[in-house]
Known about the structure:
Layout (H helix, E strand, L loop, with lengths): L2 E5 H4 L2 E2 L3 H16 L10 E4 H8 L3 H15 L3 E8 L4 E8 L1 E7 L4 E6 L4 H5 L5 E5 L8 H11 L6 E5 H7 L9 H19 L2 E10 L2 E12 L6 E3 L18 H9 L1 H7 L13 H14 L16
Antiparallel strand pairs: 1-8, 2-4, 3-7, 4-5, 6-7, 9-11, 10-11, 11-12
Helix pairs in contact: 3-4, 6-8, 9-11
Amino acid sequence: MKLVVKDNSLINASYSLGLVEQRIMLLAIVEARETGQGIDTDTFLEVHAQHYADRFDIDVNNAYSMLSEATQTLFNRQVTYTVHDEKRNKPEKRVVRWVSGISYVEGAGVVKLRFAPEVVPLITRLEKNFTSYELGQVKNLNSYATRLYEILVSWRSVGKVTISLEELRNNLGLIDEYSRLEAFKRRVLDLALNQINKHTDITAQYEQHKEGRVVTGFTFRFKIKRDKKKGAIDVGERDADTADMFTVEGLNDKQLGRIVRNPMFMAEYNHLVSPTSPAGQSQQGWDFEMVNRLKRDASQFNKRPIRDYLEY
Length: 312
């Protein structure tokens, strides 16, 4: 299998890559593992036009021009993620480049790239939360569909994930594009889901959440495909009383909800959200934002043992 492995904190970060750029990154990760070369901050990895053409079923002559053009833009692409400033006890939004160096060998059809120091640990660290999938799963997807597929399969064992509209837009790398909800759903979300359902190993659907008439977020549910005779494996049927592997210390969703509504918890972590975000404007928005943050990365909630909030 041609496995791509990424740390889930990288998958949930906000970044924007063009389709060719994204494919170059994925292919570099795959080939580094297949050759045993590995990924570090010093080594330039190679992506060959012929390999690119073979993996993504395109004409090799087109691959040459695609790789050449992508090399011109990839160096300036950035990834944004949040870390905790221990000294000031505050969240810090960090922006780094994907690559620290990149070049294109004219005539040979070879891209040489070196991942940035901050990105390398997020690609290579496998001992904690990580997601792996076959490169072939995304070969027929556009860039938004690839990003959404990565987000969904990072919750493969649960079969569902709830995410605010703001966070979803950030994770898909959208800043000002498709600001109207109708355009976002038609040109990005629905198109991405159609591609995922047609070309990958999962089928997915979503329901939207509203506060009044305003859509604030979505819950995605998906099933892993089996062969057509046997149907799909449903991995999304789990009630709120049951804990899952992505939660915290075996706590179920109802317990996590009690924790994030605890006045002490809210006082200690209200700095994590902007007053203008859905999580800063309503209790419902706060609840599903904080529960999902806890389940994705509980390490940022370190002021006291998380179970202590159930005692107050």
